[in-house]
Amino acid sequence: MISHPHSISPNTVLAIFSTPTSTPSPSAPSTSTSTPSPSPSHPILVALSLTDQPIIGHNPHLQYFHLYPQQQQQQQQHQQQLTREHQQQLQLQQRLLLQQQQQQQLLQLQNIQIRQRKQLIAEQQQHFQQQRSLRYKNKNSL
């Protein structure tokens, strides 16, 4: 059959003709020259180019033009592997995002605790200064 399916351009139509020799019908006169038909035991592979581009040549865009069953299975397995890897990457991204969110929440909590400590220290300093001021006034009033 086709030994190199990747060498056919995407604008090529393949057809296998294996029709027995036939005679033209008397009601429709033939206007073209007749060509001998192939015998059923020797089918002919015909490649018809739909453009002016050459039919033979490597075409990277034609990777999956014609796949045999084993190639189809390999391609399907490869696609499944890519899908699994993509899902694993998505899960990893989700875990990293969750971890980042948790770290941000922890930082926010630590910032709140730091502000509360600063406020407590400021209140304690104010209270200490008030006590000091009261002691000083009491000393002077005696």
In short:
It contains one helix and two strands; from the N terminus they run E-E-H. It is mostly helical. It has two domains: 66 residues, no CATH class; 76 residues.
Describe the structure using short key phrases.
single chain; 142 residues; mainly alpha; 2 domains; two-stranded antiparallel ribbon; 1 helix
Written account of the structure:
By secondary structure, this protein is mainly alpha-helical. It has 2 domains: 1-66, no CATH class; 67-142. It has one helix spanning 69-141; strands at residues 12-17, 44-49. A two-stranded antiparallel ribbon has the order 1-2. The radius of gyration is 43 Å and the shape is rod-shaped. The model is unreliable at 12-23 (pLDDT under 50).
Measure the end-to-end span. 120 Å
Quick check: average pLDDT? 73
Number of domains: 2
Low-confidence stretches: 12-23
- What strand order characterises the main sheet? 1-2
In DSSP terms, counting alpha (H) and pi (I) runs of 4 or more, how many helices? 1
Topology overview:
Blueprint (H helix, E strand, L loop, with lengths): L11 E6 L26 E6 L19 H73 L1
Antiparallel strand pairs: 1-2
